[in-house]
Design the sequence.
């Protein structure tokens, strides 16, 4: 399936003809927004596949992609000659082309800095009244099942556990999230509690940058008598963080640090965006944004 993912021209030049049976009054689009990655194979395996799943589920919508990382966009353009649009450029193009309804669906793990970046742009375009309807979907981890709403954590847990290898006594799985200083990064500690509440043991959560850190992981693994651990990225793509920070040969990689601490380590280089069950969750989040006609912000 060909992905309508890349617009090489300037937004003002990017004009897409009406689909068969589509009028100017009912033009609808879904903008799939992610941080992006400079690894082409990871981009194709994860971001493009999520986009393809969304396109399949919403044939009446035009589906586009945008990246929030300006650095990633520039590196892809330099290395591959492909110009991805930012979230702002993509919305500008959709407005200029006369789309009436737009759903912006981020592929971020949590409502952190990158999600905030998307939310601010959506609010700007809503203030401009650039579209009749402009909806913002929620990230992977948002609702926690309180007050009768869906439990995004449990849905994500059920999806990712399908990829877990068998683990025996004194073995464990460690899920690597991104982390950071944004308060939303507390989702990773919450995810650990959700795993425990679901009765899923021998699975630990840690982050590249934040809490729980790799030092916390090492301490907990040692306290629980774990000898062998499998590292799995809780990241959309298996890009820089998965390949270098997690699985790199450098002394400061998480694999090396765990080995130095006496653990036997294996790694999985598959982003969660490659998981069909995770792809289905993003499709559902688009459906929720359309049905509920509101922002998740």
Sequence:
């Amino acid at each position: 399936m060909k992905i309508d993912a890349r617009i090489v021209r300037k937004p003002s030049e990017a004009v897409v003809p009406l689909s068969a049976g589509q009028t100017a009054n009912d033009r609808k689009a879904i903008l799939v927004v992610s941080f992006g990655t400079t690894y082409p194979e990871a981009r194709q395996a994860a971001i493009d596949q999520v986009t393809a799943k969304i396109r399949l589920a919403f044939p009446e919508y035009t589906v586009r992609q945008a990246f929030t990382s300006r650095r990633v966009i520039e590196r892809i353009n330099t290395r591959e000659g492909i110009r991805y649009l930012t979230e702002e450029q993509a919305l500008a193009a959709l407005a200029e082309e006369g789309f009436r309804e737009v759903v912006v669906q981020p592929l971020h793990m949590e409502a952190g800095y990158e999600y905030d970046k998307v939310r601010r742009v959506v609010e700007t375009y809503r203030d401009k009244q650039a579209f009749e309807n402009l909806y913002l979907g929620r990230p992977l981890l948002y609702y926690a099942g309180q007050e009768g709403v869906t439990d995004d954590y449990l849905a994500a847990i059920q999806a990712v556990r399908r990829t877990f290898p068998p683990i025996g006594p004194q073995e464990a799985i460690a899920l690597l999230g991104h982390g950071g200083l944004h308060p939303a990064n507390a989702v990773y500690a919450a995810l650990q509690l959700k795993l425990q509440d679901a009765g899923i043991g021998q699975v630990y959560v840690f982050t590249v940058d934040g809490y729980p850190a790799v030092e916390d992981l090492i301490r907990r693994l040692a306290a629980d008598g774990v000898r062998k651990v499998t590292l799995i990225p809780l990241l959309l793509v298996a890009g820089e963080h998965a390949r270098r920070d997690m699985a790199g040969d450098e002394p400061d990689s998480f694999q090396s640090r765990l080995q130095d601490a006496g653990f036997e380590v294996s790694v999985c280089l598959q982003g969660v965006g490659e998981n069909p069950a995770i792809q289905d969750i993003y499709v559902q989040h688009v459906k929720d944004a359309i049905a509920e006609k509101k922002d998740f912000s």
